[in-house]
Flavin prenyltransferase UbiX (Paenibacillus graminis), 200 residues
Amino acid sequence: MNKLKPKNYVVGITGASGGIYGVRLARTLLALGHSVHLVVSNAGWRVFKEELGFAASDREGFLNEQFGSYPGSLHYHPIADIGASIASGSFRTAAMIIMPCSMGTLSAVAHGSSDNLMTRAADVMLKEGRPLVLVPRETPLHAIHLENMLKLSRLGVKMIPAMPAFYYGPTTMDDLIDFMVGKVLDSLDIEHSLFRRWGE
């Protein structure tokens, strides 16, 4: 992958199933040399426990294990730290991605609720006119889910549902995860080689 000028990216990981998506996204950005400002919801940590074998008593160890060997800089912000740098529009960030995004977090963003750092950071992206990407992970969807997505889409938020493709011949779980991460990077015009494109 081509190296780019380092930028600040905010990555939010919620309690929707598929925390590995956000982990892989953060790793990829760090591998490119970018700074990642990571926010994980309380339910997101629970998903890490259930899906990734995270030991609930060792968050620092988990973060070091997952992200400690990349050239970029990781900045972890507790979700209750409403005074963190990313809570202010004066702190320059290139984009924010919530991957995966629970329906609860999506609803909070759609209605301007910013009672924790993740939703406040998303609100900052909206008010500053900066790129915000949400990766909803829920099925089936009811009308409220869809209306919230439509509302945010009309505000310019990129909606990239966690719907991996199969035309490129994936053979492993990693292939499916990389496809979704690649689609997010595509939406932000970040070069990558995470999947084989149609026609290649």
About this structure: Residues 81 and 159 are 26 Å apart (CA to CA).
